[in-house]
Design goal:
The protein contains five helices and seven strands. The chain is α/β, with parallel strands linked by helices and 137 residues long. A five-stranded parallel sheet has the order 2-1-5-6-7, sandwiched between helices. The protein has a two-stranded antiparallel ribbon with strand order 3-4. β5, α3 and β6 form a beta-alpha-beta unit. The longest helix has 11 residues.
Length: 137
């Protein structure tokens, strides 16, 4: 098995349509990659929802502990957690109103990728959302 992400053109279309991004593992530390990437996406016009039980807010937005606490539709769930947490996060993802399950560079689980795709979800793994946004503007 392998990961067959959508094409760059398809990723560009996803990013043009998306408005709300729930960022799982978003840190409130400006030196962390999750913060820098999310800040760039926020500045590009996306609504960022911090998902981290260890912080109260990030980027001026109130944090929630899990994606299940988010009210309303989520366009992208962007994961900044280690791969070992993907089974639990994928299970939560299937319980919320969200379109895209996206994991950052180095966060990969082929079984989760195929399980979510087989359920009809769009899955993007091992890609930086900030880089993809810059490449598909």
């Amino acid at each position: 098995m392998s990961i067959d992400n959508p094409s760059r053109t398809e990723i560009g279309q996803i990013l043009k349509k998306a408005k709300r991004i729930a960022v799982v593992g978003l840190s409130d530390n400006p030196d962390r990659t999750s913060y820098m990437v999310s800040e760039a996406m926020q500045k590009a016009g996306y609504e960022i929802i911090p998902v981290n039980p260890n912080i109260t807010e990030a980027l001026g937005e109130k944090a929630v502990s899990t994606i299940e606490e988010i009210e309303g539709h989520i366009d992208i769930v962007n994961v900044f957690r280690r791969s070992q947490f993907l089974p639990e996060l994928a299970e939560q993802f299937t319980k919320v109103d969200a379109d895209i399950f996206w994991t950052q560079l180095g966060v990969i689980d082929e079984d989760i990728f195929h399980s979510l795709k087989n359920k009809g979800y769009t899955v993007i793994m091992d890609r930086c959302i900030k880089v993809e946004h810059a490449l598909t503007k």
